[in-house]
Please model this.
Amino acid sequence: MSDLKFYDVEMDRTDCTVIHQETVDRVRDTMPDEDTLLELADAFKLFSDSTRLKILYALMEAEMCVCDISVLLGMTKSSVSHQLRVLKQSNLVKYRKAGRVIYYSLADDHVRTICQMGMAHVLEEDEEIAP
Amino acid sequence: MSDLKFYDVEMDRTDCTVIHQETVDRVRDTMPDEDTLLELADAFKLFSDSTRLKILYALMEAEMCVCDISVLLGMTKSSVSHQLRVLKQSNLVKYRKAGRVIYYSLADDHVRTICQMGMAHVLEEDEEIAP
DNA sequence: CCAATAGTTGAACAGTCGTTCAACTATTCA
DNA sequence: TGAATAGTTGAACGACTGTTCAACTATTGG
Model:
């Protein structure tokens, strides 16, 4: 049917022909879902900003309020608060209110594990460059 | 000296006073260097885009050329090539030339380890939402 | 009660980033 | 040799993101 041909033309955004069809098919079967990969990307995105990493490393050592973190990082309370909101929404940090002061801390040990593993990778990379 | 006072005013970008000076001092001592944290953020940034993740997951399964990856992901060769350049520069993938065709593959097992750990985190998060 | 202050919020701005397009190189094979 | 094709490149565009500013809420202590 001409429908099929039309469909193929519409979907082709690659301006090239497949070279190893079997490989493509096999790989397609083993790939995680689109949604899962988007979720994974979003998870890594949380750790991909140095301000957020600084906040997380600070909270690994102590429960801290917004002012403390602001002074520690030399940034405005607003900026810190915005990032804490992101980390809170992603369940990486939790908080506790005490009067006017809000104390933030790590939600669990995932953060520590993930940062340690990323750090190991970075340090190993550096070794390769200057052994 | 008025110099000192002026310095303090200049440096203060936090519009707030420290609440727990001891905590801030202690945390500051344990924090990794600024440069290290920037490097760590850049490392996580590589895994924070779903296209790059797709490419990396594909290469976990098989050595592939640019055309194969383009067809697999339904993207232009150009787009794939740009991302492969990023991954190549970061030593996450390597390549081998065979005539007109360039075969890409994972540089080492770091990628597998990091993705698996990120994925474990994502899957665990999902469990918490719907156990 | 009210001034002071911890923290939040949303809009605005600037910088970053991924994709596309068009032009290019390089290799093959007919 | 020259047409075809794998892959790269840089500019342009739009979307996204982190910071700042200003205005706001809420809590406290005099």
About this structure: Confidence is low (pLDDT under 50) at residues 1-11 of chain A. Chain A touches chain B through 64 residues (CB under 8 Å). Strands of chain A lie at 64-65, 93-98, 101-106.
